[in-house]
Amino acid sequence: MNAQMVALEGGFPDPVFDAQATFRAVMNAMAELGTRQPVHATATPPAPLSPTAGALALTLCDQDTCIWLEASLTSEAVIAWLRYQTGATIVDNPAQAQFAFVADASSMPRLDAFAEGSQDYPDRSTTLVLIVDALDSGEPLLLEGPGIERRSSLAPTALPGDFRSQWRDNGVRFPRGVDLVFAARHEIACLPRTTRILEPAEA
Amino acid sequence: MNAPTGSIASYNFAYLDEQTKRMIRRAILKAIAIPGYQVPFASREMPMPYGWGTGGVQVTAAIIGPHDVLKVIDQGADDTTNAVSIRAFFQKVANVAVTTRTDEATIIQTRHRIPEQPLKAGQTLVYQVPIPEPLRFLEPRETETRKMHALEEYGLMHVKLYEDIATHGRIATTYAYPVKVEGRYVMDPSPTPKFDNPKMHMSPALQLFGAGREKRIYALPPFTRVESLDFDDHPFTVQTFDKPCALCGAEGVYLDEVILDDRGGHMFVCSDTDHCESRQGDGHRGQQEGTFR
Q1: Does residue A198 lie within any of the structural domains?
Q2: pTM listed for this prediction
């Protein structure tokens, strides 16, 4: 099947309620720090864009948003699917993107390459969607911040090597900064910019 | 809708079109990520005038799903005009279950009160906000207040509270009492009585604020630090009442004055009608309970 044919398939079977349910999962994940929220909606985008990441794109992206794609996602099929299903503009410059999708964290630019918003408008920043295999089998991250009473932990797989120091720098720029969504199989978790990742020594 | 399916065009679920919902949803996510910061959004015309809760209605419409149970309160009451109309609106356009019981609701839309019963994790409180900018009456220019938030320049707000003390001997602000969120943004809690301010601090529920006319959305994630501004020698205090609720005898709750006659007769009753009714259902009685049956 060519890219144009693939683009027409794989949207939400029930667009209104699938988008609502997926949004509530993201909203809860963003609000309740460290929780893993199930995503049941069934989007079937072309690989390597995962079904969960595809559901997030259908829920949040449209003609008003720009999407940046990490190199492994820049296939003709993925681009055609996103363009047809969401109407979003695909951009080359990560600093212009409202949403960025990453399948291979080892080849993504540093977090400060994305839009961090301005001091006046810190909301004008990129939300990164990182496609991961699982949320509990990577290096454990101990989390603190708004959204959790004390501490919680997440262990997403396949983070960039110096993620802790990049995330610390992201926090220093507050209120500017990027927000992360981890898209695993059928579940998501978020790191809003307010999250502090504790060093193992602080645990 | 009331009409038989397929006979006439009906509204989209929860009234708003999907593109509008996505725009509001994106704003809500950024609002949660930057607690207390007011995110601009493209507020729509709603089938009710600005000032009647269009901001709260748009936020509720963007988050509500078929499995939600909605409660709407206006000054604490489930049975006043604004609450009744908004509840009926969502029954009609989203066909959701509604309740007056705080503990049964998944989404509570409120005008100017926080329920007396502590909220639980998983509940979302949606505030209707008239003026979201806490600095607006001190500095009318949006360009300036935006800069003040950007630079964390909140001295003017403390001057205002100090002038209260100089004039009245105490901080005379009793509603829309400014708070500082996570030590960063000064935020208007909407015109809730300051009595409710402590309930916002470290609440297990998600709190979303929608201002329709002013086109702003802001948020407090669960377990967020919310401190009411004050001075070391004039610490923040909440209102206290001399008598318990006249109907249910509750103490330590926010009371409304009800005028009984034209000879100065009055009584004080719970502003939170669900709280009052639940207590009466449990057998609690105030001094004047039964007078009006």
Answers
A1: no
A2: 0.95
